[in-house]
Amino acid sequence: MRALLLVALGGAIGASGRWATGLAVTRLAGTRYPFATFAVNVIGSLLIGLVLEATERPGLFAAEIRLAVATGLLGAFTTFSTFSFETLRLIRGGEYGPALLNAVGSVVVCLGACALGVGLARLVTR
């Protein structure tokens, strides 16, 4: 039961963070290209790399922290389903270039952000 509550609490924080980040990015960048989803997924990829790598060391963080942050908070914060829908919407609208940029760019940049997070965690936890 404790694990469920930790995931739920993390999820509430992550979903709220996603909503707030989406609003901020949309205000700055507009809505023509799905920058908000892109930003959330890049930030989430960076953080998941950082958190999961940092929590790999035994005794550094409690298992509950990993569960609440990685599964709850970041699981609710990032959004592959929205990424998929927005990319499909671009394709259906005949915007093939932006759709390709979103699909390839999201994968490449999110993988890079995750690798950066892992690298930062290794520096911090040495």
Strand content: under 5%
Shape: globular
The gyration radius over C-alpha positions equals: 16 Å
Quaternary class: single chain
Average predicted local confidence, pLDDT? 92
Tell me about the largest β-sheet: none
Percent helix, as a range, is over 70%
Query: Which consecutive residue ranges, at least 5 long each, have pLDDT under 50?
Result: none
Judged by helices, strands and strand pairing, the structural class is: mainly alpha
Ends distance: 34 Å
Total of DSSP H or I helical runs spanning 4+ residues: 5
Query: What is the succession of H and E elements?
Result: HHHHH
Number of domains: 1
The number of E-state strands comes to 0
Offer a quick outline of the entry.
By secondary structure, this protein is mainly alpha-helical. It has one domain (2-124).
Structure, explained:
The protein has 126 residues and is mostly helical. The protein has one domain (2-124). It contains five helices and no strands. The longest helix is centred in the last third of the chain and has 29 residues, at 96-124. It is globular, with a radius of gyration of 16 Å. The model has no long low-confidence stretch (mean pLDDT 92).
How do the strands and helices of this protein lay out in sequence?
Elements: H1 2-29, H2 35-54, H3 63-77, H4 80-92, H5 96-124
Helix pairs in contact: 1-2, 1-3, 2-3, 2-5, 4-5
